[in-house]
Amino acid sequence: MPWTQTDRVLERQKFVKAILSGRATMTEACRQFGISRKTGYEVMARHAERGMAGLADASRAPKTHPNQSSPEVEGAVLRVRKAHPTWGSKKILAMLDRERPDKTWPARSTIDAILKRAGVVEPRGKRNRRQPSAPPFVEATAPNDVWSMDYKGWFRVGDGTRCDPLTVNDAFSRASLVCKAMVAPKLDDVRRRLEEAFDAYGLPRFMLSDSGPPFGSNGLGRLSRLGVWLVRIGVVPVLIEPGRPDQNGRHERFHETLKAETASPPSGSIRSQQAAFDRF
C-alpha cells in the first residue's frame, strides 16, 4: 500500500521525524506508513542529503535527453529556414544533404520539431475537405511521358517591365525544365525555349497546356501554329478544357511556390528576375 492518501510530502516529514525521534524503528515506521523498507531508506537518504527540502516531490522529467539534436544541427536547420522562409522539413533536409553529404542528418519529423520549438512555423488549423482535382488527361508513368507548360500570371518587375514567366515541367518527376522571364507570350519565343528543352532532355510523348495563345486556338481541333509544329516533330499536344485549370492542377500549384520563392516581391529588372528563377 502506498503512502496514506493525505499529503505525500507531509507524510514523508512525519516518517522522518518518527525515525529521528526514536519513536519507531525503520521496520515499524514503514509498516505504520504503508511503505516498503526500500522506500523508507530512500526517504531517509533524501533527508540526509538536502534536509526537509529534499522530501518535496521530484520532477519525473528525464534529466538528460539523449535523442535531442545538437546545437550544431539545430543551428544548421534554422539557418536554411531563415534563408528560405517558405521551406518545410523536406526541402531543408535535401539542402543539408547537398551541403554536407558526409553528415547524418535527423529525420524530417525531428526537423519539424526543431522548427516548431524555434517558433518559426505555426500549426495548421483543420482543413476543410474539398473535392479532389480532376484526374489527369494523360497518365505519366515515367519521365518524358507528359510535359506540362503554361504562363504564370504576368506581373511587373521593379523597373516597370512586364514579365510573363514561361514554365515547362515534367509531370512524372515534377522537374522544372523551363522557367524563363519573358516580356510577352510570343510564338517564336516559346518555340525557341521548347527547342532548347528538347535538345537538353529529349522529346516528351505528350505536351499538356491550356488553350490560350500561343498554346491553343479557337480553330479546328483547337490546334495553334505551335500545336501543329509539335505534331510534326512527334509530340502530341493535349489541351485542357476552357475554364478548368484544375485539370493541370500540379502545374498551377507549382506556380504558387514559384511566386512565393522568387517574386514576392518581384526583382528590380527582367535580368535579375531571371536570376531568381535560375536559382530556384
Q: Which tags fit this structure?
A:
single chain, 280 residues, alpha/beta, Nucleotidyltransferase, domain 5, 6-stranded mixed sheet
Which SSEs are present, and which pair or pack?
Layout: H1 8-21, H2 26-33, H3 37-50, H4 71-83, H5 89-99, H6 108-117, E1 146-151, E2 155-156, E3 162-170, E4 176-182, H7 187-201, E5 206-209, H8 225-233, E6 236-239, H9 249-262, H10 270-279
Parallel strand pairs: 1-5, 5-6
Antiparallel strand pairs: 1-3, 2-3, 3-4
Helix pairs in contact: 1-2, 2-3, 4-5, 5-6
Description:
- The chain is of the alpha/beta class.
- It folds into 3 domains: 8-55; 71-117; 146-279, Nucleotidyltransferase, domain 5 (2-Layer Sandwich), CATH 3.30.420.
- The chain has 10 helices and 6 strands.
- The chain has helices at residues 8-21, 26-33, 37-50, 71-83, 89-99, 108-117, 187-201, 225-233, 249-262, 270-279; strands spanning 146-151, 155-156, 162-170, 176-182, 206-209, 236-239.
- Helix 1 (8-21) packs antiparallel against helix 2 (26-33) and helix 2 (26-33) crosses helix 3.
- The longest helix has 15 residues, at 187-201.
- The two termini are 66 Å apart.
- Mean pLDDT is 84; it is low at 130-134.
